[in-house]
Structure formats: C-alpha cells, structure tokens
Design goal:
Layout (H helix, E strand, L loop, with lengths): L4 H17 L2 H8 L4 H28 L3 H25 L9 H11 L6 H25 L8 H6 L3 H19 L3 H26 L11
C-alpha cells in the first residue's frame, strides 16, 4: 500500500514536534505555571498571525477546483477568526500591534507560497492545524486541567470539532498530493517541515517576549 503524503510529511517533521513539547512555553502552559505576561504576549502575536492565516486560507479556497474543498477552506478561515476572538476575549489585554520578528517571518513564509502550486500552499498551512491539535491533545491527556488558568486554551485545541477540522485539512492535502507530481509532493514536504519549524519558533519567541532590536517610531 502506498504511504500517504501526510504520513511521510509528519515523519519528516516529527523531530520538530518532539522539540516543541520540550519548549518552556509548552511545558509551563501545560503545568499552569506560565507567566501571564508571556501568555498575553503570545495571544497578542497569535491575533496578528491569525489575521494573515485566515486570509491565506481564503486564498487557498479561491484556487481549489473541488467545491467541497473550497467550502472546507472557507469554513477553516471563518472558524479561525471565531476561535481567535473567543479565546482572546478570555485572556488578552491590550496586545501588541506590531508583529514580532518570529511572527513576521512565519506569516511571510505562508504568503510566499501564494504563487506556488496550490498543493504547496495548502501544505504550508497544515502544521498550524496538525501541531496545535497534537499539542492540545498531548496536554489534555497528560496534565491536570482542573485549576489550570489556561484550561480553556488546552480544551479549544483538543476538542472533537478541532480534531475533525484537522483531519479534513490532512485529507485535502493528501488528495492534492495524490494528484501532484513527485516534484510538487517534495516541495509540499519541504514547506510542511519549514512551517513546523516556524511553530517551534513562534512559541520560543513568545516565551522570550521577543522584541525588535531596532525600534522604529512614527
């Protein structure tokens, strides 16, 4: 039986996922000991990220030929905005209006795939689904949720609806990969791994509350 693209892509990125689970941001969030200012910094940057991410999802939808897949990606875009607003209303205070270097790098990587094959652009957004689902599920199964100030965040990424969205995103990427050339599939895997590394960098940056070394004032 031929191995699905998603299986080989996850295997290629699995060392990054394992490194993510060891990040101080993730281990402290799981334990409920993460400093509120670090989490608020993350939430503020995540809000800026989601603004771009949702537009990339909508752009992918505009390029897909299968109308069911178009509807799925438009739903992903809408759900992303809804989840962002719901979660951020629970946690965030006045957040940053300027992207951190890591946030800008990650969103720039996603936008840079706009002129590549749509399969590559879709593969670029998949780690944001899959890694969040895997991390959320890991936290839910291995930590005590009761009393954790970040319980709502953990539950949001470990619930059945998010599992379904993640599974659907994987299935669409597998379908696109099955109809793509070997060269395109290789680029899909490469960008999947790069985007997974961006997930690591995003949380690492949030823990360190990364700032620009050169401040620009209007």
């Amino acid at each position: 039986m031929e191995t699905k693209w998603s299986s080989s892509a996850w295997k290629a990125a699995e060392p990054v996922y394992e490194a993510i689970l060891k990040l101080p941001f993730i281990t402290e969030l799981k334990e409920g000991t993460l400093a509120a200012e670090r989490f608020n910094f993350y939430i503020g940057q995540d809000s800026l990220y989601i603004n771009v991410y949702s537009r990339v999802l909508a752009h992918i939808a505009s390029r897909l030929a299968d109308m069911t897949q178009v509807e799925d990606f438009l739903k992903f875009a809408g759900d992303g905005v809804y989840m962002e607003k719901a979660l951020h209303s629970l946690y965030v205070s006045a957040g940053p209006r300027v992207m951190s270097p890591a946030c800008l790098l990650y969103t720039s990587l996603l936008k840079a795939q706009a002129c590549d094959d749509v399969a590559v652009e879709a593969a670029a957004i998949l780690p944001c689904f899959w890694i969040y689902q895997a991390v959320g599920r890991h936290m839910f199964l291995t930590s005590r949720i009761e009393g954790n100030p970040y319980a709502d965040w953990i539950k949001a990424y470990s619930n059945e609806e998010f599992d379904k969205s993640n599974a659907r995103a994987i299935a669409i990427c597998d379908d696109l990969a099955a109809r793509a050339s070997d060269e395109v599939r290789a680029r899909m895997t490469d960008i999947f791994v790069e985007a997974a590394r961006m997930e690591w960098l995003f949380w690492h940056s949030a823990y360190n509350m990364e700032q620009w070394p050169v401040e620009i004032r209007p």
